[in-house]
Design brief:
Blueprint lengths: L8 H44 L3 E10 L9 E8 L6 E2 L4 E5 L4 E6 L17 E8 L9 E2 L4 E7 L10 E7 L6 E6 L7 E4 L1
Parallel strand pairs: 5-6
Antiparallel strand pairs: 1-2, 1-11, 2-8, 3-7, 4-5, 4-9, 6-8, 9-10
């Protein structure tokens, strides 16, 4: 019959070291999982903020133009730029929607009329175009709205809709981020160039 009254110091040290190694391994695994979860949560928050906020904003006023002596607005012009902290926006993939109380229409991007850097001709009815670009940071025009750049958008709404006192909306939906809604009302007296509020 064996007599094992007590551990020796060496045996106790081996058991203690084994417990320390196992505990430190578990701690490393738990901390690693925690850091990974925190990083994923941060990514989710940043993605949600980017999707909820609009990437573009209106710079300056919105103007409506009418034919001399006309009874309705037949061209709308405004400028857009990147919002603070916004990422570059590909204008070629941006969608504009025009709506009044009577009609909702998705406007067609008229790339053939685009002449970046120079004033382009007004697009046909139901179309929109980037009629002018300012503060370009590149020598080649790529249709991407970068930080510090300003694009002038010209919209030709459906004819006969924008008469006096008519309210309308233009929604700008970039490929990433929330849509920017522009709500304006045609003034009581329509001149050749009108400031829309």
């Amino acid at each position: 019959m064996k007599n094992e009254d007590a551990f020796t110091g060496l045996e106790a040290a081996i058991v203690l070291i084994a417990f320390v190694v196992v505990a430190s391994t578990f701690t490393y695994v738990v901390l690693g999982a925690g850091f990974f979860t925190t990083q994923k949560s941060q990514e989710t928050v940043h993605t949600a903020v980017g999707q909820a906020s609009s990437a573009v904003e209106i710079l300056g006023n919105v103007y409506g133009e009418a034919v001399s002596g006309g009874a309705d607005i037949n061209k709308i012009t405004f400028s857009i730029g990147l919002a603070a902290g916004g990422t570059p926006v590909d204008v070629n993939k941006t969608v504009l929607t025009f709506s009044t109380g009577e009609k909702v229409q998705t406007l067609v991007y008229d790339q053939t009329a685009t002449s970046f850097g120079e004033v382009a001709a007004a697009p046909p009815e139901g179309h929109w175009v980037v009629s002018h670009e300012e503060n370009s940071i590149t020598t080649t025009e790529n249709g991407v709205l970068d930080n510090g750049e300003q694009f002038t958008i010209t919209v030709t709404p459906p004819a006969g809709l924008l008469t006096a006192y008519t309210g309308f909306d233009i929604d700008i939906k970039p490929p990433v981020g929330a849509a920017l809604a522009i709500h304006r009302t045609v003034p009581a007296y329509i001149e050749q160039v009108n400031l829309l509020y």
